[in-house]
Each structure stands twice: as C-alpha cells, then as structure tokens.
Amino acid sequence: MVTAFVLISVKDKQFRQTSDYLLQFPGITELHLVAGEYDMVAVVRVASNPELSHLITSHIIQAPGVERTKTLFALDTYSLFDLSALYGVK
Q1: pLDDT one-digit tens code per residue, 21-72
Q2: Residue 13 pLDDT exceeds 80
Q3: How many Å apart are CA 65 and CA 86, to the nearest integer?
C-alpha cells in the first residue's frame, strides 16, 4: 500500500465544494482542514505509485478550488492497526 499526504491550498475558501469533489474518489481516505501554509490535507491510500500519480494528476489538482498542492510520500508506516485491511488496499 502506498500512502501519501497531499497538502492543498484552496482559493476563495471553497472548502465544502473541494471536499465534496475529492471524497468521491477511491483512495482519498481522509480530508483534514488545517491551519498554516496550506488549508487542507488529503490522506491518500492506494495500491501503487501509478495509481497515486493518476489520482493526483487527474483528480486532485483538477478539483474545484484547488490552487496548489504539495505531496508527501510515506516511506514507512507504523500503526497498531492493519491499515491495508482497514482501507481495503493491498
């Protein structure tokens, strides 16, 4: 499983419209509104890097209100839970 955190700047405070659009895509497991340089963090969990690339380039950066993004890739994950099973991603 590939995990990434996509930091998103949202123009004109279009949080609801942007969130509603992004949550329709499998692989975007969570969205968090945050304070700081970026407005929102999307947690993405997918099976492969090509799937992550497609999700970012075809959907996330095309979402209504998205001004800019920055993607952080998880190199390793530590959890008390089996995240692959929890999110249905192998």
Answers
A1: 999 999 999 999 999 999 999 999 999 999 999 999 999 999 999 999 999 9
A2: yes
A3: 30
Cβ contact 3:84 at 8 Å: no
pTM over 0.70: yes
Q: How are strands ordered across the β-sheet holding 28-33?
A: 28-33, 40-46, 2-10, 66-73
> Among the CATH numbers 3.90.180.10, 3.30.70.920, 3.30.420.40, 3.40.50.1820, which is that of 2-76?
3.30.70.920
Q: Is 14 exposed, middle or buried (0-12, 13-18, 19+ CB in 10 A)?
A: middle
